[in-house]
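Here comes an entry:

___
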Amino acid sequence: MTHQFALRVYYEDTDLAGIVYYANYLKFIERGRSEWIRSLGVDQGALKTAQGLVFAVRRLEADYLKPAHFDDELVVETRLKAETGARIVLEQEVLRGAERLFAAQVTLVCLSEGGTAARIPAEIRRKLAPPVH
């Protein structure tokens, strides 16, 4: 299943050339991931408060394909590629209409309050990969 998150490029997102500054694509896909996990019914604030766990990016591979510009309407698409007890691998794209502007593969892990790796709680894993009927 693909999750979509719409956003608009603001002036503050652009550089001197009038295109989206490269680091802002990472912010865009972070928002997409946050909305994706929220859409699954996972409250990250409650997870931190109740279990002391947070998600963190472990690895990111990114391709900048075409520039976005001020006032463009974009969509961040997020898809689960794989999950294990210790990591979540996502594919994310930033699109302008049918044009692919940016693509990334992101590996997330769960961390404890002390910053050490922790298993992803079973209830979250069930939400990531619900049983097939």
In short: The two ends are 15 Å apart (CA to CA). The domain at 2-128 is CATH 3.10.129.10 (Thiol Ester Dehydrase; Chain A).
